[in-house]
Amino acid sequence: MKQQSYTTKQMGDACEMLIVAELMLAGVPAVKMPDNWPGFDVAAFSQGDQAPQKISVKSRTFKRGRDSCVEYDIKDSSFDWLAIVILPNADEGEPERRVSIFPKSISDVRFYRYPPETKNHDIMSGQIDLIAEILPEYKDNFCLSPTGIVSRSDS
Asked: Is residue 49 in some structural domain?
């Protein structure tokens, strides 16, 4: 396996900037929030919205198995959207970068939730190698379509 030439902080910052750039190129004004901003990483201003859309960006290198996940607390209301950037890992069989952007309300339903009797009951977990299956319609959803399906009026 090739050793990374960047730190996890650099990877996170780069992925936040990637999301901002892709949103801007899709016609959605966006800005990266300052480091350590509470709750979200990117503010976007999609057409017709009064308030900015708050996006939490999660980045991971592709890995198979249940030990590689994106997690958040279901009670966390500080963000509206989740952007997951999965970086390629040819050793694990994923040669391309994948970006999925979706409303938190969607992952609240589709991600795994730990059983009520566990201490992690409020944690929502999306396994990295299953994101493409869990959220197929939200791949490259840079126009922030709530359904993930871009119609002619969205573009």
From this structure: yes
**pTM (two decimals):** 0.90
Q: Which helix (H) or strand (E) holds 26?
A: none
| End-to-end CA, the chain | 40
Instruction: Specify if 2 maps to a domain.
Output: no
> Using DSSP, how many helices (H) and how many strands (E) does the chain show?
3, 8
**Spacing of C-alpha 56 from chain mean position:** 7
CATH number at residue 32: 3.40.1350
Closest to 41 measured CA to CA, from 33, 31, 49: 33
Domain of residue 61: give its range.
Answer: 8-138
pLDDT tens, position by position, 49-106: 678 999 999 999 999 998 999 999 999 999 999 999 999 998 888 889 999 999 999 9
Give how far Cα 141 sits from Cα of 1, 33, 68, 91, 154, Å: 31, 20, 23, 27, 11
Q: Is residue 3 part of a domain?
A: no
